[in-house]
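Researcher: Here's the sequence for the chain we discussed earlier.
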Amino acid sequence: MKLGLGSYAYRWSIGIKDQVPAKPLNAFDLLDRASDLGLEVVQYADNMPLDRYSEADHHKIYEIAQEKGLALELGTQCFDADQVDEYVEIGKRLHAKILRVALDEADGHIPVAELAEQLRPRVDRARAAGMKIAIENHFNYPSPRMVELLDAVNDDHLGVCLDVANSICANEWPEETIAMLAPYAINLHLKDYEITPDPYGVGFRIHGVPLGQGRAPIEWTLDQLKHCPSDMSVILEHWLMIDDAGLDAAISKEQPWIEQTVAAAKKFTEGR
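Model: Thanks. This is the structure I predict for it:
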């Protein structure tokens, strides 16, 4: 398995919504971070949209990645046919093998047959570009519906970007999600989480922790993926939440969290 850095590992350093640092990390900075961490892949997700970079930038990103021995992947959020087409073209410049598309609640309102019909020509274009499209199980797109979609398209260049925790939001426990989607997995998002009871007994909170320090069934998950190619990318993320201490405090925690996560991931995937 090839360990990689997902751009969401630096959610706060890059900036998101109204939380934007004075000097956000850019796509080139992410290459340096991944190289320094000893990783092999960088996956640019929708929090670092590569359509905002020029063609010249795309070629430069690829050149630097080559120098650092990094493979590149890219991704979008929610299904938009025109945007997927645009990202296939960007993927060509990056020589990317994976285009991750995260489906969410709005996509769940599109009939499966209609979404499959829109996906088929995009998968064909991805294949021609030497790329696969990986649909991510995001917060509000249920896994049974995703299986229905994948079976409807029935193409070996369309698979799952399997996230080990996202589907808790869709009322699925991780073992349930992973069991359903592992047969289709071509990409893995690895993170960890903890469940902390409220001190007053008013429910509980699900929050992120560095890999190996929470409840995610990491070893079991990797066992479910033994059938996957040995060079499948495992993209490392985390759910570091911002709190009352503010943006700068959150940013200061990101590097230690990803360093701990990388160290744990290397142990978990050793020999796999």
